[in-house]
Amino acid sequence: MSPPTPRLRRALLVLTTALAALLCALAPLPAAADGPADTARAADTARAADTARAAGDGPADWTARPAGGGADRDARPYVYLEGTPGTALQDRLAVTNSGRAPLTVRLRGDGRAGAWIGFAADTVTVPARTRAEVPLALTVPPDAVPGDASGVVVADDGDEEIRVPVRVRIGGPTLAALTVEDVEISDGTIRYALVNRGNAMLEPRLAVRVDGMFGTLLERPERPLPLELAPGRRVERTEPWPDAPALDTVTVRLRVTAPGGARDEAEASATYIPVAPAVGGGLLVLGGLALLGSGAYRRRRTRRGDPEPPGAESADDRQPTTETRPLVKAGPLVKAGAES
Q1: Is 180 exposed, middle or buried (0-12, 13-18, 19+ CB in 10 A)?
Q2: Residue 198 near residue 272 (C-beta atoms within 8 A)
Q3: Sign of the C-alpha dihedral, residues 12, 15, 20, 21?
């Protein structure tokens, strides 16, 4: 049998490659639970769980929320009560155990209004896949100031806790008072503090204006701030100002307002000077002052006739001089020769 020709060898090579590719395509893929699709699905599930927890649902297998009536029993985002000083207000907290084992949680109040809360039971055990409603009573102190008070109910299972907000409106005349304090400018940032001086819950709004020597440098219209200021509460905040000038004298004015007529203004001033030119100019001024002071000192000593300090030359010392020699007195001349 004659050896295969080069053309036949190439044909056999192509045929073998095609058969190998076909077998690989028909072979079943290995089961991979961690493939790209499963990984993405697991990531989506984790993100959904994190979102639910951030929304206030707490741990995945149990929740604690204000109990409600009607079809939507979990519609309330927080416990809200109204009453006058000295009255007892009642509500209920719903604890739902969606796990497969009994759940034991401990309940307590925190914050100003939380300290006024008492529970029918401080420790509650909820069977698996069961919902329990725990009665609570909030007693407003007789000396409570009319206005708003806030706090939280804390449900703790030993590993994680859920905090349920509590808001109380105390009957009587209310006063909305807000101040802005301690305004200062540093490192491209405006710092200030807000203080609720009244007895009502406030939602402050802020307006910012900065004026320089040649006009307005910054003006931000009034906008709501992302906070609720409880009575007596103080909050320190910052306002970014990245475009602060390099050379100018500025005045920052902050105006805060809140519903109910609360309003206040405060201001602060600052001077911006470039560091390098300021240092160079300062050195030149100091050098000039040193020269002027030295000249004045010399003139004053000359007028007074004070001796010059050691090593200093006077004007006479610098004049050229002619050297003189002492005269020698001549005696009688003696003439050499014979005696007469």
Answers
A1: buried
A2: no
A3: positive
Selection from 171, 197, 209 nearest residue 262 by Cα: 197
Cα–Cα distance measured from residue 28 to residue 22, given in angstroms and rounded to the nearest whole number: 12
Ramachandran quadrant class, 103 (left: phi over 0; alpha: psi -120 to 50; beta: rest): beta
The span from the CA of 119 to the CA of 128, in Å, is 22
- Between β-strands 79-83 and 161-170, what pairing exists: parallel, antiparallel or unpaired? parallel
Listed in sequence order, the residues at least 6 apart from 175 whose beta carbon sits closer than 8 Å to its beta carbon are 147, 198, 199, 200
Helices (H), the chain: 6-26, 36-52, 111-114, 275-304
Q: d(Cα 336, Cα 333) in Å, to the nearest integer?
A: 9
From first to last of its 340 residues, what are the pLDDT tens digits of the chain? 455 565 655 555 555 565 555 555 555 444 333 343 343 444 444 444 443 343 344 567 999 999 975 445 556 889 999 999 999 999 999 999 999 999 999 999 999 999 999 999 999 999 999 999 999 999 999 989 898 999 999 999 999 999 999 999 999 888 899 999 999 998 889 999 999 999 888 999 999 999 999 999 999 999 999 999 988 899 999 999 988 888 889 999 999 999 989 999 999 999 988 755 544 555 555 655 656 666 555 666 666 555 555 554 544 444 444 444 444 444 444 444 443 3
Question: Residue 334 is which amino acid?
Answer: V
Q: Residue 111 and residue 123: Cα distance in Å, rounded?
A: 20
Beta strands in 29-129 (DSSP E): 62-66, 79-83, 88-97, 103-110, 117-119, 123-126
User: Does the pTM of the predicted model rise above 0.70?
Assistant: no
